[in-house]
Design a protein that fits this description.
The complex is a heterodimer of chains A (271) and B (271). Chain A has one domain (16-270). In chain A, α4 runs antiparallel to α7 (115-145) and α11 packs across α12. By secondary structure, chain A is mainly alpha-helical. Chain A contains 13 helices and no strands. By secondary structure, chain B is of the alpha/beta class. Helix content of chain B is 36%, strand content 24%. In chain B, β8 (237-242) and β9 form a beta hairpin. In chain B, α4 (127-137) crosses α5 and α5 crosses α6. The chains are: A mainly alpha (271), B alpha/beta (271). The interface between A and B is large, with 40 and 49 residues.
Chain lengths: 271, 271
């Protein structure tokens, strides 16, 4: 059918990035709103955001250096380098399960590209991660490296990889959640599994050689390894890993976006 | 069925006719799929796909059937009809929130739709923050908003409450603020869905005055309302929708008279 199309005044526009760029003002407002709502009435504010995962890091360090021993020098620095990133990924993906339901009134009454909600959630969480990483850098330089490794300069690249990866995973999760409530129940299980299958509290090179190709099919594993190389080891990651992850991030992003795009036009009728 | 009489591609800038046109609907139909539960579950999917058994959760229904409507620039049109006649659906199609099942929707110029007042509002944020957020949702940038902020605040008459979180507002105050943002955007086309019944008498008077001024300056207005006085006051043309089909289109008093003569509820004097 040729005439099956509505030319909408606001939404119909170029590719995925162009659409978000046109709505950058809204994106910024959403990010500001998310942070304001979270922090404005809290006295300790960001301290909680940092303290919570730090406590988990403490427990992981306690267990895996005194009960199950993972033989790494300054094991605490290793866990610190990966856990906060993992925590950020986990929380952003979780947001995907309720973000469209939470904004159903908005989706039903204004024509705007709804993926911007996912971008907003990922953006505000990422800004928090940047602040967390600043603190981690201070700790690492003071107690682990005793100098500033040049690999730290690679951090912006890692953050970009992470944005693409997380949005590329969160969009299909959010899309699926609109149609199937099961996602709410399934995602926590999936994420717990992913936690053990990702190098959060153990380094990826402890994984048996034979299993590595499968192990790294999980893009989070590659992402965490990148962070651990740059932050903990203080050295440039291998080109294979770096460029492989850049390619993987773009791939995940575009596939995730395509899945979202396929169904986005009916959201206002369903949410 | 949509009239597929090979309508030539309607290009926005080709003929003089388009200069006059603000909104055009050609053979627009909207079909909804109803789910027993709005969100299907994996269980249902399993029954349908794996067991190949029919599952009677879905039925389709036409909400709009082959609607043709042309609104010229500077016109003020009221959509009337009983509940479920498709007025809001038509408005959402014009706004680009819904995509037509078939047919063509074309709009010319900047469009603002107020389907639900304050749909982007967040209770924890202050009035000023919410104005910024809602304006961004409706497509207004921060710089543009800055130029109109005073106009919004003065129109809402809430200057002393702008730093108060929205949750301490009365519902009337909240509606006033939302309405003020919407009308201060100066769109070319303004769609209003039963949102004129907000605030106290004085505020309603000012809204009406404001909309009259907007109309006199050449703005296009499409209004869904059940209040005959408002319709008469603002609109010169009315379109009567009845179970998804157009019953009558013409001069406002004639259409209202015909509608009230038929509709038993309207005849009782409270249309």
């Amino acid at each position: 059918m040729s005439a099956v199309q509505a030319i909408s005044p606001m939404v119909g526009s170029p590719g995925p990035l162009g659409r978000v760029w046109r709505y950058r003002e809204l994106l910024r407002e959403l990010i500001v709103r998310n942070l304001k709502v979270k922090y404005q009435r809290s006295l300790l504010g960001f301290v909680w955001t940092f303290l919570n995962p730090l406590l988990t890091v403490g427990i992981l360090v306690l267990v895996f250096s005194h009960v199950v021993r993972i033989p790494l020098p300054d094991y605490w620095a290793f866990v610190l380098s990966g856990y906060f990133v993992w925590n950020c990924v986990l929380q952003t993906l979780n947001t995907g399960t309720y973000i469209f339901a939470e904004h159903s009134r908005l989706t039903r009454s204004v024509a705007f590209p709804s993926e911007i909600l996912v971008f907003g959630a990922a953006g505000s969480r990422l800004l928090e991660l940047v602040a967390e990483i600043m603190l981690i850098l201070v700790l690492l330089v003071a107690f682990h490296h005793h100098q500033v490794p040049s690999s730290f300069a690679l951090l912006p690249v890692l953050l970009v990889i992470q944005v693409l990866l997380v949005i590329g995973l969160a969009l299909p999760i959010a899309t699926l959640s609109v149609f199937y409530y099961d996602v709410h129940h399934a995602l926590p299980i999936a994420l717990t599994t992913l936690f053990y299958l990702s190098p959060v509290f153990y380094p990826a090179d402890m994984v048996p050689q034979a299993a590595r190709p499968f192990y790294f099919l999980n893009p989070i594993a590659g992402l965490l390894t990148l962070y651990q190389e740059v932050l903990y080891a203080g050295r440039m990651p291998s080109a294979t890993l770096l460029f492989g992850m850049i390619a993987a991030a773009f791939l995940v992003y575009f596939i995730g976006y395509a899945i979202f795009n396929r169904y986005a036009s009916v959201f206002p009728e369903i949410v | 069925m949509p009239s597929s009489t090979a309508t030539p591609a309607f290009s926005p800038r080709s003929s003089d006719r388009t200069v006059e046109t603000a909104v055009e609907l050609r053979g627009v139909s909207k079909r909804f799929y109803y789910y027993e539960h709005r969100t299907t579950s994996l269980r249902e999917w399993f029954i349908r796909r794996i067991l190949q058994r029919p599952l009677n959760v879905r039925r389709t229904e036409f909400t709009l059937r082959s609607l043709d409507l042309m609104v010229r620039r500077g016109e003020a049109v009221a959509l009337i009809g009983s509940n479920g006649s498709g007025k809001s659906t038509a408005l959402r199609l014009i706004a680009g929130i819904y995509r037509a099942s078939s047919g063509r929707v074309t709009t010319f110029g900047r469009l603002t739709a107020v389907i639900e007042l304050g749909a982007g509002f967040h209770p924890e944020l202050t009035g000023a923050d919410n104005v910024a957020l809602y304006a961004a949702v409706l497509g207004l940038g921060r710089r543009e908003l800055k130029a109109r902020y005073d106009e919004v605040v003065d129109f809402a008459q809430l200057r002393e409450f702008m730093d108060t979180p929205l949750k301490y507002y009365s519902s009337g105050m909240e509606a006033r603020l939302a309405f003020a943002v919407a009308v201060c955007l100066h769109p070319d086309i303004l769609l209003l869905d039963e949102v004129l019944a907000v605030g106290d008498q004085a505020f309603r008077e000012r809204c009406l005055a404001r909309l009259r001024a907007y109309h006199e300056r050449g703005g296009t207005l499409i209004l869904v309302s059940h209040e005959v006085d408002q319709i008469r006051e603002l609109c010169s043309r009315a379109v009567w929708l009845d179970r998804g089909e157009m019953r009558m289109d013409g001069e406002v008093d004639r259409v209202l008279a015909a509608y009230r003569a038929e509709d038993p509820v309207a005849r009782r004097g409270a249309p």
